[in-house]
Design brief:
Blueprint (H helix, E strand, L loop, with lengths): L1 H9 L1 E8 L6 E10 L4 E11 L3 H10 L15 E4 L13 H7 L5 E2 L4 H13 L3 E3 L4 H9 L19 H17 L11
């Protein structure tokens, strides 16, 4: 926690969220430090949890040293961007965004275009503008495993990533990249 505190005082801390649905019900959170002088994004920390309620996810975030209502002295991110689908309501008529806000985590919707998100992060990686800290090992594995969805007919992909454990972490990182670089890093998309 001390390392996070020291580095995040010098650099902007960004937080990205992605929410799964269906059988995995996964939630992924990525933290990154942006070093403006070097135009460098350090993917600093990440979590991915399955089938956890909102308050348990918020408690996990707080336990890592980031601000929630139960950890008011935690580090407050410069921005918190999340999957815009997190605004959809659950059976209790509350959204992920609303439930997390009740836990002291206020999110803004992130970039909606899958192609913009993927190309922004991939182009930044190609330009050497992204580093992954060793503490984010699972995120590195996810970025290496992120793939296009292959249709049942085995023909060319339809421009949709395969939704699995890797996609949730990768999507969370993409929301951060789009928040940092916006339109400046757009270009061709290359996934394996």
């Amino acid at each position: 926690l001390e390392e996070v505190e020291q580095l995040s005082r010098s650099y902007r801390l960004h937080e990205g969220w992605d929410f799964g649905s269906g059988p995995d019900a996964a939630t992924a959170v990525v933290w990154a430090l942006y070093v403006e002088a070097l135009d460098l994004l350090i993917l600093w920390d990440s979590i991915d949890v399955t089938e956890k309620p909102y308050d348990e996810v918020a408690a996990t975030v707080g336990a890592r040293g980031y601000r929630t209502s139960s950890t008011p002295n935690g580090r407050q991110p410069y921005s918190r961007k999340g999957d815009p689908a997190g605004r959809q309501r659950d059976s209790a008529q509350r959204s992920w965004f609303a439930n997390l806000e009740a836990c002291g985590i206020e999110l803004e919707g992130g970039e909606t275009s899958v192609f913009r998100r993927i190309s922004t992060l991939r182009n930044a990686i190609r330009r050497g503008r992204v580093m992954v800290h060793p503490r984010a090992k699972r995120l590195m594995e996810a970025l290496c495993s992120y793939r296009w969805k292959v249709p049942a007919d085995g023909l060319e992909h339809k421009g949709e990533p395969k939704k699995d454990w890797a996609s949730h972490l990768a999507d969370a990182a993409e929301y951060i990249a789009c928040d940092v670089w916006g339109d400046s890093a757009r270009g061709s998309v290359a996934l394996r």
